[in-house]
Amino acid sequence: AQSVTQPDIHITVSEGASLELRCNYSYGATPYLFWYVQSPGQGLQLLLKYFSGDTLVQGIKGFEAEFKRSQSSFNLRKPSVHWSDAAEYFCAVAPTSNQFYFGTGTSLTVIP
Amino acid sequence: DGGITQSPKYLFRKEGQNVTLSCEQNLNHDAMYWYRQDPGQGLRLIYYSQIVNDFQKGDIAEGYSVSREKKESFPLTVTSAQKNPTAFYLCASSIGFAGTGTEAFFGQGTRLTVV
Lengths: 112, 115
What we know:
The complex is a heterodimer. Helix content of chain A is 0%, strand content 52%. By secondary structure, chain A is mainly β. In chain A, strands 2, 5, 6, 10, 11 and 12 form a six-stranded mixed β-sheet that branches. In chain A, strands 3-9-8-7 form a four-stranded antiparallel β-sheet, with no helix packed on it. Chain A has a two-stranded antiparallel ribbon with strand order 1-4. In chain A, 34% of the residues are buried. Chain B is mainly β. Helices cover 0% and strands 49% of the residues of chain B. Chain B contains no helices and eleven strands. In chain B, strands 2, 4, 5, 6, 9, 10 and 11 form a seven-stranded mixed β-sheet that branches. Chain B has a four-stranded antiparallel β-sheet with strand order 1-3-8-7, with no helix packed on it.
């Protein structure tokens, strides 16, 4: 079955610490890959996307993600977390179909 | 500014009532989507449309209906057949359909509560 897995439901980090959010997918071919962020009660905002080419993708707000084909992973990273990064993060994929598939999300708490 | 507008932001429904959630986009996007969001379940696709006057069921279409009479509008009706409608509903659009390398843009959501 096709799926997107975010294994960490909730992560807590200290402000200034580094962050890595994991995402794995299971599809036959490499799909298009996305990371979105959602603040409470709001819609989703695109952080970055991977279509092809360089496997390290830069996004907004200092985020980056690395696509690893051998691991079917697309992990999101940030070198130094700010308190304003506290939010819910969703990994999404778009295989060669008509739908976007979303993971269940990772909630990030930032400790001062 | 271009974007997706969902209204209302909060909506209350009595048992047995149908309610309609509005979604309007001025991005000139062809594809539009409705998602339902429940805590811990991520986003689940209700319906999607790639073109005017055409739409397809998503994973959880039962108890919902949609129309796509205009390119910019994709309203969602939550019918009385939907047994557990309390949720956060998100509308999205993309310039082409998913799988063509386009990303989805989202509205701010409507929170529906059954009272």
